[in-house]
Design goal:
single chain; 437 residues; alpha+beta; Alpha-Beta Plaits; Chitinase A, domain 3; Trigger factor, domain 2; five-stranded antiparallel β-sheet; four-stranded antiparallel β-sheet; 12 helices; 13 strands; 23% strand; extended
């Protein structure tokens, strides 16, 4: 008998399932007999509990399990026979007035949508390019030198200057009262690196060892400490130690200390360039991939399965709770988080996933083994032992699936770029890295 699929609205469908009561009852009997062989109950030896006692204790739960299993099997067979692609889980409800000896159920479910992708030839996609400049290498060298700087005590009559490391005692009061986090002894910080508020750093600049000073400090309205945000405190600070920073010279010794194979200044700069170029490449790929995906989604027409969107909302909510828990928020797993916060993001992810899947299917954009191998080798090349990293990827199916997904996205992005109207845009290294000039 052919399966009838009723269309309710857009992607929602309904199938009516019929199950013989005898089939359910015989499976219940089989499972109860199996259970009776192992069940332990007071007053009976194992395996000797009478069937009527087992049925009385476990009959309802076993019947519930069998019903779920049988209805699930019937739905899977019906959906397969009707050749429908089921999205999410069906909602199954028992119907009244079934013929004698039968149980009937309505299974309401969603199907995956038809995805229509419009003509991409008229779509404008911005393709970003960037280069590693000598200035970027110089800046990276400065960071590496700062990481290896040494400190020497300044003479007692020398004032604090930018770049010094100072050790201070301080106490801040608001309306005459000390506040939480407003007092410290032997507190160390670098002057001019933004570790402290600018007013605090400005007050310490020019002070000498052993000197004390009182000054007002206005906390910004958006300061992370909510108790003091927007308020002004009176601070007493005493300088206890001033140390001048010494940066290592850019020479062969620095190159050697960094483990550079070619321990020369040229070798060091070459190694930095290679690493920065790898990072630039990955960032450009991410940026251009995003531009291609945005263009693709904008040209696609499809209805979204509500069940898949809801699953994605649930996943995002769980992620948000895990993040709150990591931050030390009490009862984060019970936090009330409304769905609507995540709906736009969930809808976009589902839409993109369905559109990408259709484009991959229609244009044979699946990840080829050699593409996966190349990508893994590229990821591994920045590590000390690349071969071990390659083995680490290949030893785990989840990691391999993640690499495959990245390669597929790259294939899709390249396909979109090949069809679309590409607008080339050049950005500076600092802009690409999100750094100030």
């Amino acid at each position: 008998m052919a399966v009838t699929v009723e269309t309710l609205e857009k992607l929602e469908r309904k199938i009516t399932l019929s199950l013989p009561v005898t089939a359910i009852q015989s499976e219940v009997d089989v499972r109860l007999k199996k259970l009776a062989r192992t069940v332990k109950m007071d007053g009976f030896r194992p395996g000797k509990v009478p069937m009527n006692v087992v049925a009385q204790r476990y009959g309802y739960s076993v019947q519930y399990e069998v019903m779920n299993d049988k209805v699930g099997e019937a739905f899977a067979m019906a959906a397969n026979e009707a050749q429908v692609r089921v999205a999410g889980q069906p909602r199954i409800t028992e119907k009244e007035g079934a013929p004698s000896g039968e149980l009937t159920f309505d299974a309401v479910f969603e199907v995956y949508p038809e995805v229509k992708i419009g003509d991409l030839s008229g779509v404008e996609v911005e393709k970003t390019a960037s280069e590693v400049s000598d200035a970027a290498i110089d800046k990276t060298l400065d960071i590496l030198r700062k990481q290896r700087r040494t400190f020497a005590l300044r003479s007692l009559d020398t004032a604090t200057a930018q770049g010094d490391r100072v050790t201070v005692d301080f106490e801040g009061k608001i309306d005459g009262e000390t506040f939480s986090g407003g007092k410290a002894e032997d507190f160390q910080f670098m002057v001019g690196e933004g570790q402290m508020l600018k007013e605090f750093e400005d007050a310490v600049l020019g002070m000498k060892n052993g000197e004390s000073k009182t000054f007002p400090l206005a906390f910004p309205a958006d300061y992370h400490g909510k108790d003091v945000a927007g308020k002004t405190a009176d601070f007493l600070v005493t300088v206890k130690k001033i140390e001048a920073a010494h940066l290592p010279e850019v020479n062969e010794a620095l190159a050697k200390s960094l483990g550079i194979a070619d321990a020369t200044v040229e070798g060091l700069r070459s190694d930095i360039r290679k690493n920065l170029e790898r990072e630039v490449k990955f960032r450009l790929q991410g940026r251009n991939k995003q531009a291609a995906m945005d263009a693709l989604v904008a040209k696609a027409e499809l209805d979204l399965p509500k069940s898949i969107v809801q699953s994605e909302v649930d996943r995002l909510k769980e992620g948000a709770r895990a993040d709150l828990k990591q931050r030390g928020i009490k009862d984060a797993d019970k936090a009330e988080i409304p769905d609507d916060i995540f709906v736009p993001q969930a809808e976009r992810r589902v839409r993109l996933g369905l559109v990408v899947a259709e484009l991959v299917r229609a244009n044979e954009l699946h990840a080829k083994p050699e593409q996966i191998k190349t990508h893994i080798e590229e990821l591994a090349s920045s590590y000390e032992r690349p071969a071990e990293v390659v083995r680490w990827y290949y030893s785990d199916n989840q990691r391999m699936a993640e690499v495959e997904a990245v390669v597929i996205e790259s294939n899709v992005a390249e396909f979109v770029m090949s069809k679309a109207k590409v607008i080339d845009k050049s950005v500076s290294f600092d802009e690409l890295m999100g750094q100030q000039g």
